[in-house]
Amino acid sequence: MLNQEIKVGKPFKIDERIFYPLVKVLQYKHRQMEYSSLTPMALVVFEKDMKYLLPFEEIECPEELLNMVDP
Fold it and tell me: Does any domain span residue 20?
């Protein structure tokens, strides 16, 4: 069984910016074997009245990731 989802991590603040890490969580279970991995995907940044995405890889739907985070 393969389970994959995107999670929003704990925010952190640098100066006036608030950063929200987005992580892809992959869980694979097969008989007696279990495997998990975390892959950083992007940072969602809030700065004054702006909200933007800093991706770590090419992303198909950046708007969906931006909508996952609401301060």
Answer: yes
Can you tell me whether residue 66 is helix, strand or coil? helix
Closest CA to 62 of 45, 42, 48, 46: 42
- pLDDT bin (cut points 50, 70, 90) of residue 40 is very high
- Considering its fold, how many domains does the chain have in total? 1
> Locate tokens 């495997």: which residue?
35
As a whole number of angstroms, the distance between CA 69 and CA 54 comes to 13
DSSP code of residue 56:
S
CA 60 – CA 43 distance, rounded (Å): 15
CA 30 to each of CA 24, 26, 36, 39, 69: distance values in angstroms, whole numbers, following the listed order: 20, 13, 12, 21, 32
35 falls within a domain:
yes
Q: What is the pTM of this model?
A: 0.82
